[in-house]
Recover the amino acids of this structure.
């Protein structure tokens, strides 16, 4: 299989070096850009499989770069930034980022996010049954099994879980989920979401207090992950 | 005494009040003229002017002195209702009255000036002291991990042959820990400057306390701590409306603090309850507790326990207090009679018992 190609757009030489070593040693091929302009040119000349984008670039606001890329670039974009306010993260996700990691970051975490971003961009609805570790979601039968046992979910719980599972690895903001599952009139009713997430966790997690599938992205939203490679 | 020297009354009001007070006292004395001599009145007026001098500025006091002298002369010294003074004694008395009143005013004014200068000096000295404490603890807290990183990387780069794989792994883990510690300090500093700048505006949203506490404990336990953390929170605790980021920071600092300052084999209990729209989170440990005389100070900025051997900036708990107050709540520390310390955070919240 060909190595997946990752474009790093970051003006900090140290971060680029760190990413280059980390990614190359994990079997990705790496190309690098120091500025927004350079990054956009490189991405358009030869679209990479994934872009890691810094928001604090010298020549252009990263959010604008993100919007520009999203006009034609469809592969995953992961934001890697020192900006850690909820507003920045939500804006980036709304502008089309698949994921958001703040600096300082753990390389293990970054690799996991890259893996799931790349995987979900390949998967994209080809299957009727989704498998995640000991969880199985049958989209045509509308059933969910954990360790081969059927789990009873209400319609809303099921819709929520499927929404997250289809976007595996991607942070979904509270508002996005509320709009998608309950409708535009509910985007401020975040307590609905909290209650339903707690219910789903009780049903699918081994320990609902230490979730492994449905993770909280504090102040931003939730992310569905699985450990399978 | 200090309160007496603070001028909270505006200048104009001081003039007005000086005149009014002198007139009122004079009127009262006037009512008593059949019973007391006019020389006693002089003393009473003098006392009045002296009292005014304690609180008011110099010019209103001089006004009071002059006014009272004229009133005494006109209404009390015989022959009354003239400015004429018949006896030499009374003439000398009037002159002396005037001089004493003026001296009184000027002296009080001078004392007050000296006070002011001393206070400014003291404030400046305190600011410098605080600044030095900050610089000292900061340079220590930031330089220690930096020194670790530089030292460990030097070692890894230069001394490769002699290092066993176990040594290398150890050095690497030290570098990683140092990085995390630096990050934590920067986080604290940024939060402190947020609080100092006064730009802390809570962003209210529904929060699940269970979720917040478990996530924090998971984060702390990643550092392979020796302490045992027991979470005792009812799963049916309602959702509360508050600022999630601030709550996280408050609870992280409290729990992390307990871990940092307790023995590796101790136990930390975390509990939370919600009564009458007040959220209470309690963090207890079974360590030694705090010295009674320092209980009051632990939330002060840059305050470190006198006997402490653990390093730190003294920022963590002051941020806890700052954020709790920004959420209209409070934080309280007490020693437990059986040993250990108990931190209680109380924050008024809206609650939601919404069920599916």
């Amino acid at each position: 299989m060909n190595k997946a190609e990752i474009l790093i757009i970051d003006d900090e030489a140290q971060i680029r070096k760190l990413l280059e070593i980390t990614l190359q040693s994990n079997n990705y091929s790496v190309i690098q850009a120091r500025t927004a302009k350079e990054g956009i040119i490189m991405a358009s000349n030869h679209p990479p499989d994934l872009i890691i984008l810094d928001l604090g670039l010298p020549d252009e606001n990263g959010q604008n770069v993100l919007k520009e890329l999203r006009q034609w670039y469809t592969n995953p974009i992961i934001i890697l930034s020192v900006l850690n306010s909820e507003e920045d993260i939500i804006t980036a996700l709304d502008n089309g980022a698949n994921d958001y990691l703040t600096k300082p970051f753990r390389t293990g975490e970054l690799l996991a996010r890259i893996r799931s971003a790349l995987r979900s961009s390949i998967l994209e609805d080809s299957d009727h049954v989704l498998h995640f570790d000991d969880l199985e979601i049958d989209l045509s039968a509308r059933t969910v099994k954990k360790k081969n046992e059927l789990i009873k979910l209400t319609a809303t719980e099921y819709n929520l879980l499927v929404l997250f599972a289809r976007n595996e690895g991607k942070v979904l903001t509270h508002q996005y989920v509320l709009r998608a599952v309950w409708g535009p009139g509910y985007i401020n009713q975040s307590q609905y979401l909290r209650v339903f997430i707690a219910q789903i966790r009780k049903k699918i997690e081994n320990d609902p207090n230490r979730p492994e599938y449905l993770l909280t992205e504090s102040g931003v939203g939730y992310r569905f992950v699985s450990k399978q490679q | 005494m200090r309160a007496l020297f603070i001028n909270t009354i505006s200048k104009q009001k001081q003039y007005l009040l000086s005149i009014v007070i002198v007139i009122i006292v004079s009127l009262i004395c006037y009512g008593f003229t059949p019973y007391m001599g006019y020389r006693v009145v002089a003393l009473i007026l003098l006392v009045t002017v002296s009292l005014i001098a304690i609180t008011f500025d110099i010019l209103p006091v001089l006004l009071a002195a002059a006014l009272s002298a004229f009133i005494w002369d006109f209404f009390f010294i015989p022959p009354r209702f003239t400015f004429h003074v018949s006896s030499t004694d009374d003439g000398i008395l009037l002159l002396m009255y005037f001089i004493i009143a003026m001296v009184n005013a000027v002296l009080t004014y001078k004392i007050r000036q000296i006070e002011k200068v001393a206070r400014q000096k003291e404030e400046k000295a305190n600011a410098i002291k605080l600044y030095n404490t900050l610089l000292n603890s900061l340079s220590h807290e930031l330089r220690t991990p930096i020194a670790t990183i530089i030292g460990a990387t030097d070692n890894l780069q230069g001394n490769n042959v002699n290092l066993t794989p176990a040594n290398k792994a150890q050095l690497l883990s030290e570098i990683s820990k140092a990085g995390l510690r630096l990050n934590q300090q920067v986080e604290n500093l940024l939060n402190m400057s947020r609080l100092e700048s006064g730009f802390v505006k809570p962003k209210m949203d529904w929060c699940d306390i269970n979720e917040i506490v478990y996530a924090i404990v998971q984060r702390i336990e990643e550092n392979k701590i020796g302490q045992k953390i027991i979470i005792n929170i009812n799963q049916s605790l309602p959702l509360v409306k508050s600022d999630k980021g601030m709550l996280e920071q408050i609870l992280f600092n409290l729990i992390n603090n307990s871990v940092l300052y307790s023995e590796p084999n101790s136990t930390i209990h975390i509990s939370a309850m919600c009564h009458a729209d007040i959220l209470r989170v309690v963090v207890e440990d079974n360590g030694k507790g705090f010295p009674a005389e320092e209980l009051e100070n632990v939330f002060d900025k840059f305050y470190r326990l006198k006997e402490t051997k653990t390093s730190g900036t003294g920022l963590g708990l002051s941020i806890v207090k700052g954020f709790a107050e920004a959420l209209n709540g409070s934080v309280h520390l007490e020693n437990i009679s059986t040993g250990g310390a108990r931190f209680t955070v109380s924050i008024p919240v809206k609650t939601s018992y919404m069920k599916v």
Remarks:
- Chain A is about 40% helix and 20% strand.
- The first strand of chain A starts at residue 5 and ends at 9.
- Chain A has a mean pLDDT of 89.
- Chain A touches chain B at residues 86, 104, 154, 157, 190-192, 194-196, 198-199, 209-210, 216, 218-219 (CB under 8 Å).
